[in-house]
Amino acid sequence: MAIRRTNTLALCLPVLAAAPCSSAAGQTQRIASHLEIFAPGVVSVPGASVYRGAFDPSGTAFYFFRKVGEEREDYRIFVAHLRSGRWSDAERVFPGEYSDLYPTISPDGGRMVFTSYRPLPGDSGRAVNANLWYADRLPTKWSRPRFMGRASTPANYDAKPVYQPDGNVHFTSTLPDWRTRVHLLTRWNGSDFEAPVPDRRSVATWTWVFPDSAVHYVWDFEESPEGSFALLEVSEVVDGRRGPSDIWITFRDGSGWSVPRRADELNSAGYDNFFLFSPGGAYVLFVRDFATYYRVPVRVLGQPPH
C-alpha cells in the first residue's frame, strides 16, 4: 500500500478565516501561492503523463518525455518552443517507434544525451534494455542518435542523464538485480564519451546529511545554480518500504549542509519529483504525480530557516 501523507497546506486552508496558521504553515501557504502550472495544455496536459524535462540554454525550448502507450516502457521525447511569450504545441523529437526518455541538453545547446531502448548497433538478437545515446544539433533538426558504447553498460539500466555546467554528464546505472544503483560521470573527450567514473557528489553523500539515514531514501539531487541550497528527491522508508517521493531542501552551512527539511510548500500527498532549475536559476520546476509540471520562483523558496 502506498504511504499517504497529510498536506499541511490543505489542513491550513479551511481555517484561514478563523485563525492564523502557524509560522511554518504560513510560510508554506506564502510559497504555495506562487506555484503555477508550467505550459498548461502543452507540457502539462490533462489526462496525459509527463516526466523529467530540460531547457536549452536560451530557455526558449523545453524538452521532456511522456508515456505514449500501454506498454510499461513506451516513452517518447517531445519539445515545445517559446514563441512570442507562448509555448508552441509539443512535437516529437525523434522519428521511429523507439522508447526514448530523460533528455538533457549540453550547456552550449549543441548536444542532447538521453536514455533509449533502441537496439544496440549490430546486436539484433539481444533483449532490448535502456542505455545512453546522444544526438547533435543540426540546422533544422537533431542528428541520428548514436549509442554511447563506452559510457553505457548494456546489461544495466542507464538512466537520468543530467548535463553538469562543466559539460560532464551525471547518470545512474542500475544493475540487473534492480537493488544496486550507482552514480556515475562520463566526459566528452573531443570524439567520444569516455568510460564512466564514480560521481563524488553521489546520492550517498546526501543520504548521510539526514540524522537517521535508514528511514530516508534519496533518489536524486540538484544543487541550485549559485550553490546556496540543494533539492533532494526523498522517499521515507516505513517497514522496509519506500513511500511516494517528496522534495526536500538543504542549505549550505559553512563547509557542509544543513539537516534537510521536507519542502511542504511544494509537496502533495502523492509523488513530487523531477525538479530542475530554469536557465539563470530564477525558477524551480517539478512534476506532481507524473501529470503536471509546476514552477515556483527561487526567491520565495531558497531561504534558510531562521
Task: Give an account of the 3D structure.
A hairpin with a 2-residue loop joins strand 4 and strand 5. The strands form five sheets. Strands 15, 16, 17, 18, 19 and 20 form a six-stranded antiparallel sheet that branches. Strands 2, 3, 4, 5 and 6 form a five-stranded antiparallel sheet that branches. The protein is built from three helices and 23 strands. The protein folds into two domains: 1-33 and 201-306, no CATH class; 48-200, Neuraminidase (6 Propeller), CATH 2.120.10. With 306 residues, it is mainly β.
What's the end-to-end separation, in Å? 37 Å
How many H/I helical runs?
A: 3
The CATH class of the largest domain is identified as Mainly Beta
Low-confidence stretches: 1-24
Sheet with most strands: 6 strands, antiparallel
SS-based class: mainly beta
| Domains, number | 2
Give the integer mean of the pLDDT values.
Answer: 86
Q: CATH homologous superfamily of the largest domain - what is it?
A: TolB, C-terminal domain
Total strand count, please?
23
Order of SSEs = HHEEEEEEEEEEEEEEHEEEEEEEEE
CATH architecture label of the largest domain: 6 Propeller
CATH fold title of the largest domain: Neuraminidase
Radius of gyration: 20 Å
Helix content: under 10%
Task: Give the CA-based shape.
Answer: globular
Q: Estimate what percentage of residues fall within beta strands.
A: 35-45%
Supply database-style keywords:
2 domains, 38% strand, 6-stranded antiparallel sheet, single chain, Neuraminidase, 306 residues, mainly beta, globular, disordered N terminus, 3 helices, 5-stranded antiparallel sheet
